[in-house]
Amino acid sequence: MTVSIAVTGKSGSGKTTIVKALWNVIRKKHPDKTVLLFDNDLTSELGHSFGRDIRQTIYGIRSGKHEYKTGIPENMTKQEFIEWALEDILEPIDDNTDIIVSWLVGSKDCRCPITKQLNDALVKLISRYDFVIFDCEFDLKYLYQLVDIPINVTLVIAHPNEASVNLAKRIEEYSAKYAAGEQLGVILNKVNKQDMEPLLELLKKYDLATLGTIPKDNELKLHRITKESAIVENAVEQLYYRLNIPQERGE
Question: In angstroms, rounded to a whole number, what is the distance separating the alpha carbons of residues 216 and 193?
Answer without folding.
Answer: 9
